[in-house]
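Consider what follows.

. . .
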Amino acid sequence: MSRDLLVQLCGIHSFAFAAFHLAFWKLFDWKRELSKVGPPTRAITQILNLRLVYLFLGIGVLCFVFTRELHATPLGRALLVFMSLFWVGRTIEQFVFLRVNKPLVHALTALFVIGAILFVLPMLPASP
């Protein structure tokens, strides 16, 4: 698989998580659920979620606009490492903060691991 394609798969992964986070208001019934917490917690939760949407959309765009640069330059590779570590951290946090034994939670954990792997693959040496 080409490095360009791998970077573009990273972009698709990022766009999918942006869409997923945009659905949080409905998926988790935030209108009702967040009304149970104080205004600062309600605001911070929604602000952080929107910042994640912004991050995922930005990374997705970069993966398609600067595909080659992401795997062929030191700055691009640094960004790929940053995102791989983001997903490694998110996977670890899943086990620390969300100890729920449900298939959907396990599927999300798998998608976090896939993100960690996807973002590192374009930097691996090409196979002969």
Summary: The chain has seven helices and no strands. The longest helix spans residues 39-65. Residues 33 and 42 are 9 Å apart (CA to CA). The helical segments are 3-22, 24-27, 30-33, 39-65, 67-72, 74-97, 103-120.
